[in-house]
Amino acid sequence: MKWIRYSKFTPEDLEISSEDLMRALADFLLRSGFENPYYPDPNRRLSFDELKQAIEQALYEDRLFDPEMADRVREMLDKMSTEELDKLVERLANQLVKDGFLREGETGEGGTGENPKQQPSVEVTAKSSDFLGFNTLRDLLGAVGKSSFGSHETREQATGVESSGSSKLYEFGDTMNLDISTTLFSALRREGVKLPLNLEYSDLHVHQSEYRSSCATVLMLDCSHSMILYGEDRFTPAKKVALALAHLIRTQFPGDTMRCVLFHDSAEEVRLSQLPQVQVGPYYTNTRDGLILAQKLLAQERKDMKQIIMITDGKPSALTLDDGRIYKNAFGLDPLVISRTLEEVGRCKRQGVMINTFMLASDYSLVQFVQQVTELCRGKAYFTTPYTLGEYLLMDYMNRKSRTVH
């Protein structure tokens, strides 16, 4: 007779995959300073102690298990000593490092120990950024009922491998995707029914296929102080959308490129692998510097289409003067700031760069400025919220390219 022996459920039996753990910690890893909105520190890094606290909180909040398993885990956690719980949480934290989702950075401020300056920091790796982007993209596309997308289609016809249009006379430089039946019919109509059948250059016809366009995108993210004020974190959802868009481009549109620009008192490019760790700050909104940098980055790309996607919640309130000083005015629409910013919008229009703006606020000053931008460059403006930003942005990205005529 076969015997089954049952043993007590222990912390060693608690197997949690790194992927499930990353899903539960996504908001923690992407936080943008909202926990301290009045004194944000853009250079602050997450400490190892904070990571362990987040893991412990995830265990107690039932984000990792189904309801039946969650009850058993909670019962076990309640019976564990402090030392056993610390050991379990540290094992899970080290598991994320071992699997390449996180890495230990330099020692810096942060943490909750007696000497927080001696706490090692935690950095998000490129693998983790891609994983977070994939999960955000899956959630966003699932919300709009989409599952997969191909290349960007336009109304133009071009010679290629996939046939989807009528044939055309062959011209030098076309892909030799020969339409055999039309070619032979042309020769028969000219020569009549006889053998051998002589083919001439004028008989050659090739299939046409849909023209697949390529696009260079610069995503401008407003990281001024207002993005975490007023009781709402607007920057973390913007970062999630940026990671999702980057994953979409890399996997579904490999011919496209995307680069990211942060604008605040000034502007700088940030690598997508560094985006999860970016914090809000400094305080003002220098939209002009962001547009100048975005144009420089787009000039380096040789693509059919070039566009700027700007996510902001405030009007321009800063300007870099010719002598390098930063002029700031957060009250109303400053004529100097607005006029110089619109000059850059005009340059974008002359270079054929489309600007689509996603507004996370609806105050009068912002709406008035964005209306001027859309009128100048014939772009589009969207009133959205942190909860609907992803759906609007991703659908706009794909729909715009399917409707463009070159």
Q: In summary, what is this structure?
A:
By secondary structure, the chain is an alpha/beta fold. The chain contains twelve helices and 15 strands. Helix 3 packs across helix 5 (82-98), helix 8 packs parallel to helix 12 and helix 9 packs parallel to helix 10 (335-350).
Brief descriptors of the model:
single chain, 406 residues, alpha/beta, Rossmann fold, 3 domains, six-stranded mixed beta sheet
Report on this structure.
With 406 residues, the protein is of the alpha/beta class. It is flat and about 95 Å long. The chain has 12 helices and 15 strands. It has 3 domains: 114 residues, no CATH class; 205 residues, 3-Layer(aba) Sandwich (Rossmann fold); 56 residues, no CATH class. A 6-stranded mixed beta sheet has the order 10-9-8-11-14-15, sandwiched between helices. A 3-stranded antiparallel beta sheet has the order 1-3-2. Strands 4-7 form a two-stranded antiparallel ribbon.
Question: CATH homologous superfamily of the largest domain - what is it?
Answer: von Willebrand factor, type A domain
- Please compute the radius of gyration using only Cα atoms: 28 Å
Query: How would you spell out the order of helices and strands?
Result: HHEHHHEEHEEHEEEHEEHEEEHEHEH
What best-fitting shape do the alpha-carbon axes yield? Answer: flat
Spans of at least 5 consecutive residues with low confidence:
110-116, 146-164
Count the DSSP helices: 12
What portion of the residues fall into strands of 2 or more residues?
Answer: 15-25%
Chain oligomer state: single chain
